[in-house]
Amino acid sequence: MDITEIFLLFGGGLLAGFINVMAGGAGFMTFPLLLAAGMSEIEANASNFVAVLPANVVGSFVYRGQLRSVRKHLGFRLLLAAVGGVLGSYILISTGQAAFERVIPWLLAFATLSFALGPWIKLKLERDFAFDGSRWLWLSFVLEFAVFVYGGYFGLGMGIVMFAIYSIFSHMTIHQANAIRNVTITLMTVLSIAIFAKAGVIRWLPSLIMMSGAMIGGYFTARIAMRVPHVYVRRGILVWAVCLTALAFWRYH
Length: 253
Prior knowledge:
Layout: H1 3-22, H2 27-36, H3 41-62, H4 64-67, H5 74-95, H6 98-129, H7 137-153, H8 158-169, H9 174-199, H10 204-225, H11 230-252
Helix pairs in contact: 1-2, 1-3, 1-10, 2-3, 3-9, 3-10, 5-7, 5-9, 6-8, 6-11, 7-8, 8-9
């Protein structure tokens, strides 16, 4: 690796840390950089899990106070994250990445629309049909498990889908949702890394360089996000979701 690649990977990690704590989906920015460092797609995908891990770890620490208010089902959500992530990672190792690349832009488009329309759908259901998403908690858990399987497989944009689910099926604030998202994705990511490491598909040096940047970016973004009003955090997430989806269609279609 030359000095240019080192700076590129570190800078990409720094930006990934900012993006991942705020909205998730930073992997679409870091994944091409890892490919540019000479990795195969499977190696870049596996190494990407290592690179963006600190953003969620730091986010979990900063948002730990918010977890106290949503701890009722936290243990079960962690179980879903663990089982779903392991299953998704084993599917990736077994089947490869080509099939997923064909469908991921459409999945991201659905995720973006879900997040954008989530509050409106929730208000419409509550007003016209007396819908209380908290009474459909079992459906929320089913959807969350599916997202964790997807996350263990590739993971790009899964944070956006999680926000959409929480928006429709709970009364959580954006910061409470961020707290749960960070801690569950952290657990899922650690388990996936263990599986990928055992399979020998992680390139550690480039991953660790990018990880150092992500750690710094994640720490400062989490601190800022806690001080930003709810509406601005949501708008920022939505803007990134649209950009992420457009990038996916550009790259894979």
